[in-house]
């Protein structure tokens, strides 16, 4: 809904002005966009305020006279980037990483397909659709990791077939084997799909609350959320960092 609203508004100006008060800014933005604003914070740049809503970051002034969303933000959350030239830091990226972080201990790990390699001390979680091409690429790199525990949340958002395959995998006696047989070797999961698959439904509900809109989405032990398949060296670097 938020993206559609932004598409309609594009870079249009707000007519209503308000004082430089974060609560007032929040009320005005919510009224204009029809979305719940999670936070309003001074950005520290150009007198702009940072607005975080529905998984997106954008900026406005103290009078809410204009909304800075970036030309391609409708298609990508990363289109608008505020860069600190003194430190060469991507401020928007840093803030999004912090604001979208997921506390690893809050993940319902009992609803994930669990795989342990080596001592299993390093951990990561993924949200994946069985028909996602990038998930298949990620799976091949995950196979090369050692001393790691991987929790895969079946997250069928692409098609009805994705839901059927997810159910068949969840109903398998060996879920990890059924997942790897399909995602790596292309062996279509067989067997029944009519066991208790409420875990998949609850995964979908959980992911929507977290605004997980694409697969794969990776969650590391420190809570950082990374959309998309990242290369093996990035996985290793993140897994090597302290929690």
TrEMBL record:
A Pfam family matched in the record: Thioredoxin_2
Keyword Cell membrane carried by entry: no
Cleavable signal peptide: 1-22
Location(s), subcellular: Periplasm
Residues spanning the membrane: none
Its biological purpose: Required for disulfide bond formation in some periplasmic proteins. Acts by transferring its disulfide bond to other proteins and is reduced in the process.
Designated name of the protein: Thiol:disulfide interchange protein
The species this protein was found in: Azonexus fungiphilus
Classification lineage: Bacteria, Pseudomonadati, Pseudomonadota, Betaproteobacteria, Rhodocyclales
